[in-house]
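This part of the workshop introduces the protein records we will be handling. An example says more than a description, so a record of this kind follows:
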Amino acid sequence: MATIQIKRRTTAGTGPLTGSVGTIKAGEPLVDFQGEHLYIAKADKVGSVGTPLAESDYLKIPAVAKVDTQIDTKIAALGLGTAATKNTGTASGNIPILDASGKLADSVVPKVAITNTWVVASQTEMLALSNAQEGDVAVRTDLNKSFILKTTGYSTLANWQELLTPTDVVTSVNGSTGAVSITLAGLGGVSTTDFNAHTGSDIHLTQQQKDILSNVVNARIWNGASSELIGLLSNFEAAVIPEGIKLYMTLDTNYTPYVVKYQIGIDSTKVLQPSSIIDGGTY
């Protein structure tokens, strides 16, 4: 693959390109292996006596080791301890405090209840479920319905919410009831075997149509996962490399209808080669 070399400092000195001589472009990276920093130019600028290039013209990105040292120095200077930058409490961004039992308050972590299912034969039995807790379900065999205890208070009917089920409006299929198995013949059509035999046959085509179809080439161009579909021709033309595609077309008259064949390639002079080097130079 091609090699890209960004602008880099020589062994003489440290820091970015500064002074009254030199030109930088916005976003241009400069690397200083001596000082272990990466510099990114903030804007286009040409150094001169009146407006020399300065370190303030760059974003300064230090190496990992330098960052670690700076962080350690700052932490030591502030005397920070564990979670020292956070307040205690239960509001957003706070650190909650454990109670006397070593647990978090319910307002921070709600109680976790295991849902139980109770099978009862009447409303009276449902309202007598003294062990029922919020979230428990009562299955009423007298109604063929189920209810969930939506709030504390098992003996209050209003605290039980009926669980809705989808409405079943289908009573029969083509006159059949129960567990119906659908077949073509059962719907008044031909058997599945006859249908598959017909769809797989070419008896409804003329010989000329068969000859034409046998010579048709199914060609597709797929867009990959990282490709872009461009809606307008003007947008497409503005986003491509001029003369980047080489197209060779031939007409094969050995087929009826004729077959048009295309061979597509990339102009090797328009792309980077494995031996190519993009050198940003030194400063």
The chain has a mean pLDDT of 86. The longest strand covers residues 245-252. Helices lie at 64-78, 123-127, 192-199, 207-214, 233-237.
